[in-house]
From TrEMBL, chain A:
It holds the Pfam family KdpC. Keywords: ATP-binding, Cell membrane, Ion transport, Membrane, Nucleotide-binding, Potassium, Potassium transport, Transmembrane, Transmembrane helix, Transport. InterPro entries: KdpC. It is found in: Cell membrane. This is Potassium-transporting ATPase KdpC subunit. The keyword Nucleotide-binding applies.
Automatic annotation (TrEMBL), chain B:
InterPro entries: KdpA. Keywords: Cell membrane, Ion transport, Membrane, Potassium, Potassium transport, Transmembrane, Transmembrane helix, Transport. Its main location: membrane. The lineage of its organism: Bacteria, Bacillati, Actinomycetota, Actinomycetes, Micromonosporales. The chain crosses the membrane at residues 62-80, 87-109, 129-151, 172-194, 249-268, 280-300, 376-394, 414-432, 479-500, 521-543. Part of the high-affinity ATP-driven potassium transport (or Kdp) system, which catalyzes the hydrolysis of ATP coupled with the electrogenic transport of potassium into the cytoplasm. This subunit binds the extracellular potassium ions and delivers the ions to the membrane domain of KdpB through an intramembrane tunnel. It comes from the Bacteria. This is Potassium-transporting ATPase potassium-binding subunit. It is a multi-pass membrane protein. It is found in: Cell membrane. The system is composed of three essential subunits: KdpA, KdpB and KdpC. It comes from Micromonospora echinofusca.
Amino acid sequence: MRLPTWLAHHLAALRALLVLTVLLGLAYPLALVAVGQLPGLSGRADGSLLTVDGRTVGSALIGQSFTDADGNPVPRYFQSRPSAAGDGYDPTATAASNLGPESVVDTISTDPEKTSESLLTQVCARSRAVGELDGVDGRRPYCTTDGVGAVLAVFRADGLTGRITRVVSVNQTAPATPFLTVWQGVPVELAEPDRDYVAAGGLITPVRGDAPADPAVPADAVTASGSGLDPHISPAYAQIQVARVARERGADPAMVRRLVGEHTTGRSLGFLGEPGVNVLTLNLALDRAFPAR
Amino acid sequence: MTVTTAGVLFILSLVVALVAVHRPFGDHLYRVVSGTRSARVERVIYRLVGVDPAAEQSWGTYARSVLAFSAVSILFLYGFQRVQDRLWLSLGFDPVVPHGAWNTAVSFVTNTNWQWYSGESTMGHLVQMAGLAVQNFVSAAVGIAVAVALVRGFARSRTGGLGNFWVDLTRITVRILLPVAVLGALALMAGGVVQNLSAGTDVTTLTGGTQTITGGPVASQEVIKELGTNGGGFYNVNSAHPFENPTAWTNWLEIFLILLIPFSLPRVFGRMIGQNRQGYAIAAVMAILALASVALTNVFELAGNGTVPQAVGAALEGKEVRFDVSNSATFAAATTLTSTGAVNSFHDSYTALGGMIPLVDMMLGEVAPGGVGSGLYGMLVLAVITVFVAGLMVGRTPEYVGKKIGSREIRFAALYFLVTPTLVLAGTAAAFTTGNNSTALNVGPHGLSEVLYAFTSASNNNGSAFAGITVNTTWWNTALGLCMLLGRFLPVVFVLALAGSLARQQPTPASEGTLPTHRPLFVGMVVGVTVVLVALTFLPALALGPLAEGL
């Protein structure tokens, strides 16, 4: 019996798909799983797991939060970068923040469900918190001293032009103090919850302020990574944490600094990527060298 | 060494590696697609599939074979996801919802790999490796096969035959994709990419929290995801995930794999038509556009303009420490210049102009060097349009590599070009008129960019995203699924029709009046035509999105 051509095509297609599924979907990956069990490769193929006293404590490639149950940093540990993966460093919910470069206006509401922080305010708040924790200057450009984005909504008489009629610091609400008292002769008001100053016609104007252009808190300390699982921090961020960790552990800062060096990976071949400090392996080494008092 | 110097060296080393490899690898590709002897495994496959490897197919039969294979693949993949809870290695996940299963089935069959879902919380290991990863191989093979069929149209004369789709599919898969995938996967595993069937290991962290270290057959999928310019991540965060891309050198390797086949195919074109210099000209067009894009993305990202990057001191939001700004920007350009769409950093958080370049890369039609196969056929269509435009200017019948470009040929080329802009602009407009743009995370111009990026990515079969937008709704999954389907198969049919038309012609010997298509002048003209066509089509949309935000 001869099949109609269109049916013959589809039958050939189905057979081809099944044959290729067996070859590419089963034989190929399972053979590689088997190869991955060979000595020398098995640790890496299984996720570079780290064990302490026979107990698995994580993966050398996956970052962790070093915070207590309330989310506060545990000071005897080096801290990882901010993370947008679940509640932080959750490999079952990997994510980036996806907030854009002009995400500068918070949504402030009496309903906590509707409240959300702009990326700018998140950056400012993190910078301030890291500054306090590690005893360095937490100020940044475009940030208020109370750790939110320094952003004004400027209302003008004719929309885009004309004299200024009203100025609102959109990310600050009572009881805060406006980061500027006056803007071009007009007093700056605090924002009120549940107001949309953009829709009302306010021109969004971020204010640079006088913070140093090269802040003491490094860039990676105030930004979330792409994966939310970044195992590394920059050597600069490790550097500002050395004094605190050494103090908490009663250790010699020079020794701690030496451990940081041992857990720093330079650029591969001298030019690929950027140097990073593996926070988990560093903290494990600290626990071995200077057990908590 | 400064960050900029290291970034430049990173790019240069990729260029050197590609220049060194594209000839031998292209020659290997050429032998595979033009050879006639079958290996034993191939003969077994032909017998199981029930095809005669010696039979030539007309363009219509070739197209119907492509469409039949893709239709069966979509149905199979849809069904697979819908019953995954009853299968081995499901990890306890529910069946994928119907609109999501449709979207994903189309997405992987069309080589797009747009992902509305998080791999780690939606797809079981079996669906990933025996469903999605299989399409990573075969959708790439389909793309290469269609490109080869078009080149046969240029190379052959007075024939209806364009080769045999089943033979092309088999040979490309078995002799090119699979061997490179095995080598690449082993290298990635050595770098730390996971390859097991673990459902996850629960650990107690140093501070007493809990964490689940995920597992999966990642390396086997990761390598073909790049090599086949697919881009669908095993995990939600794709190549930013340390288990997909653990080190700076695996990052280099992944970019190299993305660009390997697309930059080798012009060599295949040159060899098949018997004029290597024509292949070099095409490669030169691709390289000029690609280098410009890589350079611009790096410049804009390293400059770090915009309020938040200025506050931070670098455009580091959504980027990993081990890749930093420059290696992330280079990956972003490579992934959108091809049809890959894998990401090692999140484009949504890029500076306004740095994020616009990936968008423009896709709008170019992904021809520099483009997806595996689709890049070459897209570029050849642009070359055809260029000789046509040049012919109009001097009043001669346009020819390209010995074939006349008549009204029939230019009609197919024009139709090919019009498909994606239509889908992108109509789709974006539809999202706004129906209010579905409200799922964008960001507001204002950046919100428009998110919607525009989504439709550009789907229609061009890229798959990367300004990922803040929520697309897990019936409307979005359906609309983007349609864009991916039409954006893939309408152009494929037009390309094959063009190939059929070219193959029937007699070759036209080059004469005094023939425009030489291997000289720098022609290379410059194709670059110009490509850029002008895109600028005319998309500038208004870009002005409302990234340009409004960044200027």
